[in-house]
Amino acid sequence: MATISLCMIVRDEESLLPACLASVAGAVDEIVVVDTGSKDATIALARAAGARVFEQAWSDDFSAPRNRAIAECACDWVLVLDADERLTQGAREALRRAVAEDDFDCGMLRLSTATRLDAEIDAVARGTCRVGDAAYLPRLMRRTPDLRFTGIVHENVGEWLFSNGRRPKLLPSVDIVHLGAVPDLRALRDKSRRNIRLLERACAETPNDVAPYGYLAHEYFDAGDRARAREVADRGWAVLVGGAKTLDLPALRLVTARAWLEVQAGEPNAALETMAVATRLLADHPDVFFIRGCASEMVGLQCATELQRRDYLEAALVDYVAAIGCVSGVYLQKFIEGGAGWAAQIRRGTVLLLLGREVEALAAFDWALAENATACEARWGRVEALLACGETTKALREVTSQLDDKPDGWTLAALAAEAAGSFDAMGQWLAKAQSLLGGGFVAPHRRERYHDALVALGSFLDRPVSAPGPLGQLAELASGGTTAVTGAMARGLRCPITRGTARRLVAHWLRAGKLDKVERLVEPAAERLLPGILALTTAVVDELTDSRDRGGPRP
């Protein structure tokens, strides 16, 4: 029967270690612990649990004690856990079954991070008390002579795994619950500052090694220091394009960090250039698809013509679908949370909405919310899709129950109020959106919606407002202007929300007897500046005329 060694490195873990060791009872045949300088009862507790304990002075290098632990193992397989991790109850039997099948070299175990230290272990694994996505990590390795960790921090077995044709396998029934990223505990241990210190040293000591730059960029990003993250990513990029030899994974880590920072900085074209390198390295990684999709989507929003906009949005959609298709793949590391799941579904839904496929968009947002109920962008996307589907009452009900400190919801509430004919509410909600503009929109395209709402309200109240977009162009034409408005040709009148508002504006002018405004919309110059306006205006005139002829209510 195949045997399993538990390998651990510890220091001052008396509060967490006993529960970890208790969770592996019956799952492993030996416990090997390397202590790196405990001052508390850690060593005594480990020995009391039956562990063989070895002491090794800490040298600012996590791989060194990991490799010492492996060297002391005597079993066929090596299971790696930390003191702040636990196996779930069902994982013990699943672990034994997996090694008995013996059809892999590296087991990718599912790790879920708890929301709080007292969370019930199985509830964390089920996702009800989990922070973010579950991640699959290489934690069960066949013990071979060359098995070793590399990297002074964020140590990993990537070099071993990707050599000699070794076979990874997802083991979804072997769940690990992680407590160490619970915010209070992470702050207490100051892991981020420690990791940054070690990685800065690694970059200084091995300046031609790509690996630490990628890790360090991610650490700074997670710590909220995007400026430092970008500076580190650019330094590592110079090393990479300078010809430094590296494995695919460290290069991918660096490239995705740099490209994601470029996306966050509003530099999508630069991100696409960076991602071209990532595509050559590892074309089928979900982060590659997701980040490239985000960059293409952003470029699409900046295009001057509808055809260009549509081409980039279609390219983004292809990448988001590809990212979602990676959800069950085996990847040693993924860096974008939800990049193969709920986050990709949100982006897919947004692009579908912008392409006029609102029913499919609604389904994508519902899918995202089923996976992550706290995703505010999915909630706003759902409201926007409902508006595009003509479900004004439902959209109003949903949006008004979820308004927050971002302008997105207030903007959509204003548009829903306009569709319902409530201009007082529209004005109040639009004013609130305006007061929140400094915080930025959750979805960049929603600034376009804000401009539409601003123009519409001004036009209904006879208070002209200039703004980019098709409704800005409509107002310009109706007032007798002939200037081309930014964004009008790119967005056009295809969107059901925009088209619906435009129809109601034309009907409003007709009812108010402002025939001069409507007449300007059917002139040849108007159609050149805003394609589709002639057909829209003619349809509204015909509907209104038919309604009057029948003696019925006005549309």
| The CATH topology of one domain | Spore Coat Polysaccharide Biosynthesis Protein SpsA, Chain A
- CATH homologous superfamily descriptor of one domain: Spore Coat Polysaccharide Biosynthesis Protein SpsA, Chain A
Shape: elongated
- Tell me the radius of gyration: 29 Å
CATH architecture of one domain: Alpha-Beta Complex
Alpha carbon gap, first and last residue? 79 Å
Could you name the CATH class of one domain?
Answer: Alpha Beta
Total beta strand runs: 8
Strand order of the largest sheet: 3-2-1-4-7-6-8-5
- Continuous helix count: 27
**SS-based class:** alpha/beta
Percent of residues in β-strands: 5-15%
Round the mean pLDDT to the nearest integer and report it. 91
The percentage helix is 55-70%
Low-confidence stretches: none
The biggest beta sheet reads: 8 strands, mixed
Briefly, what is this?
This protein has helices at residues 17-23, 42-48, 63-71, 89-101, 121-126, 158-161, 183-189, 191-205, 210-222, 226-241, 248-264, 268-281, 286-302, 306-325, 342-354, 358-371, 376-388, 392-400, 407-420, 423-435, 446-460, 470-478, 488-491, 496-511, 515-520, 524-529, 533-550; strands spanning 4-10, 30-35, 52-55, 77-80, 85-87, 106-114, 130-142, 168-178. It is of the alpha/beta class. α16 (358-371) runs antiparallel to α17 (376-388).
